[in-house]
Specification:
The chain folds into three domains: 156 residues, Chitobiase, domain 2; 324 residues, Glycosidases (TIM Barrel, Alpha-Beta Barrel); 143 residues, Alpha-glucuronidase, C-terminal domain (Alpha-d-glucuronidase, C-terminal Domain). Helix content is 36%, strand content 11%. It contains 19 helices and 16 strands. The termini are far apart. It binds beta-D-glucopyranuronic acid (BDP).
């Protein structure tokens, strides 16, 4: 058979596999590997792997699969080096020595991809100091091709800036997912460890493709049972599947497990029997999972047990667990998301108050995990004052990929700009340039233990994340965790090219939709620094009027305190002085509403409705304008998507189209409900020409959603 004939047959075969309805339901994420329209991009017909480890093997298979799909050509896989082929090898591979490649700077996970002469043949080499590095290089090469570049022109080198790049799954043992909007938990705890759903491997592939190297399997609101032999065996099965992909498994640990599982009378971290229980538990886990990553802990927050129950600090709790995993080189990720009902202090100040005094008191294998903002994953929050405020302690970033407060599954809100804005924010802790990124990548305070966690948006929906565009948030998280200096725009472009196709006529409008989408959500939900005005519990939809719940901070009213004359919480020196938690140079800027970034105005300040914005409008006028701008932005996204119809496959097109319809309706609902409420308090008329809310306030208040998802 001639080569052309073979290729033709292969293409037909591909086409016939590509026709069933399932082929374009989003399952393939950004790893679709559909034939590229541009010819000549893929000149490689062989993939050779030199060396024999499970990771090298999956890396080679991935390149073969990718290039075959993208070219609709047969691609051979083996060990023979052929001209024009791709070769994957460790930098220590003897046949590479003559090349004199400089790979020291690649560290243990970086990669190098470039054209070289090997055994007299011109090949594209993917190499690294570890097989995981080779795997990352393999995916980098595929991305290069998927975004429309020729294999042989690849000249790529990159090293991750952050060591722990972790997804936190808030998955419960009963299969529900806290704040999960993409179906049941991906982990079928019941059929594990026997049934190893091939989907677990696809999950690992997707993560490896963006450099994620850790997965916390269970909810931070943890059940002690996750630490029983029954569930450890299940976690071990997942760890086995993930291992070739460089992904370590971690577990959320319930602090009171020694009582619940061990029958002890206390979980006091200073009680020797408690420490011994945890040591034995860690030993048991490491027998089943030799490369177990360690524990994630939510303690003394929202009703979870913790060391403060025994009048011990967070450091005592964290260090006791750290000692248990230290002999196995494990780590503890201890969360700083704490606030207590008994504490009358502003919720936004409590985490700093608790943790700042503990700076330097944590064991060397503890990293404190801090949410991006001081309240809770809002559409916009200023960066958390702990960043820059605990120089002696490694701090890891916690972002929320699942959009609990940004329209959940259905609203299109690309989080790249949110991640970027937080990482670029300057703490001024050690002069200009002390950005949050420099804190998190360890360079500001010289920490080697560094990390970024993302609360996953992954479930058992066919498209994993509830919508095609939600996949971009998983993708962007991984890219920023690899390189916090990346840009949300460049990441969106890559994602769009890989997820749809690399033609500019597709990529440009998709990126435009993504670029403004998060700001649109801010505008129609929480303009000008408002926060936490979502209905209580499920956080779906507006509820700024809610003020009758037992705990003050459960009430949206607590976060804006609107009266006839003014709105916002005064956190400057004339108020509760939360601004003083920032470095002095920044605290000075934030002390005065006039020098506070307007986007954070009502976060830091309480101002009259008549306050003049920089535009010259009053606060009220500016606020109304922002609600309208947000709603209009959704209409623009819909128009962009409508125009993309001929360029997108029907199944994915239709789902996004219908979700944009939901978003437009709900954006208007947010605007109308919010305006109706603010007007009921401030008594102000709408500026001339502005559309009044569709219903009266009572109508909005009467909307109830007892079964909204993600609120188990
Ligand atoms: C909030 C969620 C809650 C989580 C909590 C946390 O509403 O479900 O348990 O954060 O991060 O955003 O622990």
């Amino acid at each position: 058979m001639s080569n052309t004939l073979k290729r033709g047959l292969f293409a037909c075969l591909l086409a016939s596999v590509a026709t069933p309805a399932l082929a374009e339901d989003g399952y393939d994420l950004w790893l679709r590997y559909h034939p590229l329209a541009t010819s000549g991009v893929i000149d490689a017909a062989t993939v050779a792997v030199l060396g024999d480890t499970p990771t090298l093997k999956v890396a080679g298979q991935e390149v073969q699969r990718g290039l075959a799909g993208l070219s609709a050509h047969h691609v051979q896989f083996g060990t023979a080096i052929r001209s024009g082929g791709v070769v994957l090898a460790l930098a220590t591979e003897p046949r590479l020595q003559a090349l004199g490649l400089k790979t020291d700077a690649l560290g243990s996970e970086g990669y190098l991809v470039r054209s070289v002469d090997l055994d007299g043949r011109r090949v594209t080499l993917v190499t690294a100091n570890s097989d995981h590095g080779v795997l990352y290089g393999a995916f980098a090469l595929l991305r290069w091709v998927q975004t429309g570049h020729p294999v042989s022109a690849a000249n790529l080198t990159s090293t991750p800036h952050i060591a722990l790049r972790v997804l936190d799954h808030w998955d419960n043992l009963d299969g529900t997912v806290e704040r999960g909007y993409s179906g049941q938990s991906l982990w079928d705890w019941w059929t594990l460890p026997d049934y190893r759903d091939p989907r677990y491997t696809d999950y690992a592939r997707a993560n490896a493709s963006i450099g994620i190297n850790g997965s916390v399997l269970n909810n931070v609101n943890a059940k002690a049972e996750s630490l029983t032999p029954f569930y450890i065996a299940k976690a071990a099965a997942l760890a086995d599947i993930f291992r070739p992909y460089g992904i370590k498994v971690y577990l959320s640990a319930r602090f009171s497990a020694p009582i619940e599982l061990g029958g002890l009378k206390t979980a006091d971290p200073l009680d020797p029997a408690v420490a011994a229980w945890w040591r034995a538990k860690a030993d048991e886990i490491y027998r089943a999972i030799p490369d177990f990553g360690g524990f994630l802990v939510k303690a003394n927050s929202e009703g979870q047990p913790g060391p403060q129950d025994y009048h011990r600090t967070h450091a005592y709790g964290a260090n006791m667990l750290a000692a248990a995993v230290a002999p196995h080189k494990g780590i503890v990720m201890w969360r700083a998301f704490v606030y207590a009902q008994e504490n009358a202090e502003d919720r936004a100040k409590q985490a700093y108050d608790d943790f700042h005094p503990l700076d330097g008191k944590f064991a060397s294998n503890v990293i404190v995990q801090v949410k991006n903002g001081a309240i809770d994953f809002q559409p916009r929050e200023p960066f958390h004052p702990l960043f820059g405020g605990m120089p002696k302690t490694p701090l890891m970033m916690e972002f929320q990929i699942t959009k609990e407060y940004l329209g959940q599954a259905t609203h299109l809100a690309y989080l790249g700009p949110l991640f970027e804005e937080t990482l670029r924010a300057d703490t001024l802790a050690q002069g200009t340039g002390s950005t949050v990124a420099r804190v998190v990548d360890g360079t500001l305070d010289h920490h080697a233990l560094t990390g970024m966690a993302g609360v996953a948006n992954i479930g058992r929906d066919r498209d994993w994340s509830g919508s095609t565009f939600n996949q971009a948030n998983w993708y962007a998280f991984g890219r920023f965790a690899w390189n916090p200096d990346d840009t949300s725009d460049a990441i969106a472009r890559d994602w769009a090219a890989m997820t749809f196709d690399p033609a500019p006529a597709t990529v440009a409008p998709v990126v435009r939709m993504m670029a403004g989408s998060r700001e649109a959500v801010v505008d129609y939900m929480t303009p000008l620094g408002l926060a936490h005005v979502m209905a209580t519990g499920h956080h779906y939809g507006p509820g700024p009027w809610i003020s009758d719940l037992k705990r003050p901070e459960w009430n949206p009213y607590y976060y804006h305190r609107t009266t006839r004359d003014a709105i916002g919480v005064e956190r400057g020196p004339k108020g509760n002085a939360a601004t003083a938690q920032y470095a002095p140079a920044l605290a000075r800027q934030l002390a005065d509403p006039k020098t506070t970034p307007e986007r954070d105005l009502l976060w830091f300040h309480r101002v009259p409705w008549t306050y003049r914005l920089r535009s010259g409008e009053t606060l009220w006028q500016g606020m109304v304008g922002r609600y309208d701008r947000g709603v209009a932005a959704v209409a623009d996204m819909r128009a962009d998507w409508d125009a993309l119809r001929p360029r997108i496959d029907p199944t994915r097109y239709a789902k996004t189209e219908s979700f944009l319809g939901i978003q437009q309706r709900e954006a208007a609902w947010w605007r109308d409900a919010s305006l109706a409420y603010w007007m009921s308090v401030n008594g102000l008329p709408l500026p001339a020409g502005v559309r009044p809310p569709a219903h009266d306030l009572d109508w909005y208040k009467a909307q109830k959603f007892p079964y909204a998802p993600g609120n188990p």
